[in-house]
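Aim 2 progress update. The chain analyzed this quarter is reproduced below.
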Amino acid sequence: MILVVIAKSVAIAAVAALAAWLPMAILFASGTDGSSGATFAVQLLPVALLGSFAIGLPVALLVLFLASDTLIRKIGAVLMAANLARVMMILVTSLLWGQFGALFYGVPSWIAANVFALLGWLWILKPMREAQYG
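Predicted structure tokens:
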């Protein structure tokens, strides 16, 4: 059971990284002269993957194992936890890097946090709920 949850979490982290990377890649690829923007957009993918696997995945697994009893009851609790994490990430990035940090790191982290929440609910928490409550 735990290995299945971890495997699903890794898949969610990959999808969250791609969901966070895609809008920024489109933004940078379309906003410059073309080839350099596309190159920079491709260079952002490892950053998105690193953030998703090094920060998002451990946080999501920690929240899952510490609060799964509370989270399986309502999707609202999951979304609230994800958006509170989003607010903290945007605040930290804006304090460290100003408006650029809030947009460049905060918005993709917001997207990734909500992908973690929605897919985590659908793929992990909802099946746990159905197994527990029938």
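The two ends are 17 Å apart (CA to CA). Residues 84 and 113 are 9 Å apart (CA to CA). These observations will guide the mutagenesis experiments scheduled for the next reporting period.
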